[in-house]
């Protein structure tokens, strides 16, 4: 038997037994693992999106600082100075901005990922790629905007007395980890649903600002508890429990522990069971991410048709 005949026989066996030459469904079957194999394409998509966002802007990447800065100034002067919360929360500026930059990262992650499939419809309809590469590229773009905001936070916190602790480092890593896992899980799910129901991305634009009010980014949780529990009784206790036991509140409080707590002279109690909630929500986020990936793989079959 010749070498060519042997090779032909081996390839035929591979096809028959489902070996490396077997056919794949569009978008691949490896899920998020396929994205790792296509990391070069992922990098190209992320760089393209960053360039496109600032292509026609004279300020360029400086716009990454503008929106969070405007939001911070609005919260600081209206809530802090005008309404007087600055007098009740020491170093109120770092308290607000440590939560704001993390929530801005989460909302950017969700928004970018949700719009990613529809935005890249021309590629989805014509080129074979793992579909997950598009929402993950959106997460990377959001991260590129988070980095300069994080650096500003570090500068501001250091200027007001921040110092390094291993607990603070662990809290910062845990806070980012919770946001990334939940942002990717929800973004992956919503990007698939948005192909079939385009109102999803519009709904997110309307509700994104609610994360600022449903977490202790502006007011310490003790002030919220002081209003809910005495006024509403059992209903207030239930609302307070829901307020505390959600991943964004946990992530924001972890950032407060990492960057705000070392800068204050007196102890302001952070929300209870903080580290327990961090472990719970990171683990639960991984489970939700697996479920989102499972649903994404089933919805992607008709992406090209729906687009």
Secondary-structure map:
Elements: H1 3-17, H2 32-37, H3 39-53, H4 63-82, H5 92-119, H6 121-126, H7 133-159, H8 166-196, H9 199-207, H10 210-213, H11 221-232, H12 234-244, H13 247-260, H14 274-299, H15 303-306
Helix pairs in contact: 3-7, 4-5, 5-7, 5-8, 5-9, 5-13, 8-13, 8-14, 11-12, 13-14
Residue fraction in strands: under 5%
> What radius of gyration results from the CA coordinates?
23 Å
Chain-averaged pLDDT = 81
Quote the distance from N terminus to C terminus: 50 Å
- Given as residue ranges, the uncertain stretches (5+ residues, pLDDT < 50) are 1-28
What is the number of E strands?
0
For the report, how would you describe the main beta sheet?
A: none
Describe this structure in words.
Helix 13 packs across helix 14 (274-299). The radius of gyration is 23 Å and the shape is globular. The longest helix is centred in the middle third of the chain and has 31 residues, at 166-196. The chain has 307 residues and is mainly alpha-helical. The chain has helices spanning 3-17, 32-37, 39-53, 63-82, 92-119, 121-126, 133-159, 166-196, 199-207, 210-213, 221-232, 234-244, 247-260, 274-299, 303-306. The chain has one domain (29-306).
């Amino acid at each position: 038997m010749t070498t060519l005949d042997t090779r032909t026989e081996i390839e035929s066996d591979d096809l028959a037994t489902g070996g490396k030459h077997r056919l794949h469904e569009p978008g691949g079957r490896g899920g998020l693992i396929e994205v790792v194999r296509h990391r070069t394409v992922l990098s190209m998509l992320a760089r393209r999106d960053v360039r496109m966002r600032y292509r026609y802007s004279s300020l360029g990447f400086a716009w990454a600082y503008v929106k969070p800065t405007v939001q911070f100034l609005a919260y600081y002067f209206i809530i802090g100075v005008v309404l007087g919360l600055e007098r009740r929360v020491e170093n109120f500026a770092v308290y607000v901005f440590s939560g704001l930059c993390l929530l801005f990262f989460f909302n950017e992650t969700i928004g970018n990922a949700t719009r990613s499939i529809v935005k890249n419809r021309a590629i989805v309809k014509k080129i074979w790629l793992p579909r997950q590469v598009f929402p993950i590229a959106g997460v990377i773009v959001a991260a590129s905007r988070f980095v300069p905001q994080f650096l500003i936070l570090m500068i501001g916190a250091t200027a007001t007395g921040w110092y390094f602790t291993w607990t603070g480092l662990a809290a910062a890593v845990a806070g980012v980890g919770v946001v990334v896992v939940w942002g990717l899980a929800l973004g992956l799910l919503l990007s698939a649903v948005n192909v079939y129901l385009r109102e999803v991305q519009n709904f997110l634009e309307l509700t994104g600002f609610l994360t600022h009010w449903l977490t202790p980014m502006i007011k310490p949780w003790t002030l919220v508890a002081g209003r809910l529990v005495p006024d509403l009784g059992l209903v207030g206790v239930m609302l307070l429990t829901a307020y505390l036991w959600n991943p964004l509140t946990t992530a924001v409080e972890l950032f407060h522990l990492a960057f705000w707590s070392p800068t204050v002279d007196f102890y302001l109690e952070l929300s209870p069971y903080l580290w327990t909630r961090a472990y719970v929500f990171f683990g639960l986020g991984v489970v939700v991410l697996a479920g989102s990936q499972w649903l994404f793989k089933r919805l992607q079959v008709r992406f090209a048709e729906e687009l």
